[in-house]
Amino acid sequence: MGLLSKRLQELGIILPEAPKAVAAYVPARVAGSLCFTSGQLPFREGKLVAEGKVGDSVSLEEAQQAARQAALNAISVAAAAVGDLDRLEAVIKVVGFVQSAPDFHDQPQVINGASWVLEEIFQEQGRHARSAVGTNALPLNAAVEVECIFLIRE
Length: 154
What we know:
Elements: H1 3-11, E1 28-31, E2 34-37, E3 43-44, E4 47-48, H2 60-82, E5 88-99, H3 107-122, E6 129-135, E7 144-152
Helix pairs in contact: 2-3
Pfam family, one: YjgF_endoribonc
InterPro entries: Endoribo_LPSP/chorism_mut-like, RutC-like_sf
Domain Endoribonuclease L-PSP/chorismate mutase-like: 7-145
């Protein structure tokens, strides 16, 4: 068992099965020593954990939990793309999209849900560059979408 697998076990986190693409794209793509994930929606057991606009029908706390789930899904698709969870060495970049009510301006707080779990799992190697973007709509009415770039251990 590698470092990342051990860390997940210590934290009691079970990664979800890697979600399948919902349109014409691949869930993750490897280029050299980097793995780029497509935007991951907050699916858990085939269902979105939060639908609608944050600041309207979705609370900040619900959106943070959705961002957390989307980040776990990103780890899963990256692990599937590289063939072994323990080959994921570090989180380089996170981009988070938040389906926002017109007067909602706490997108960075929402995407903290993803950042917190990535840093919890990867520890120091989980510190990453990040963007948090508000938008008026996301696919399938998801409240959040998260994409990541991971460094691959050779």
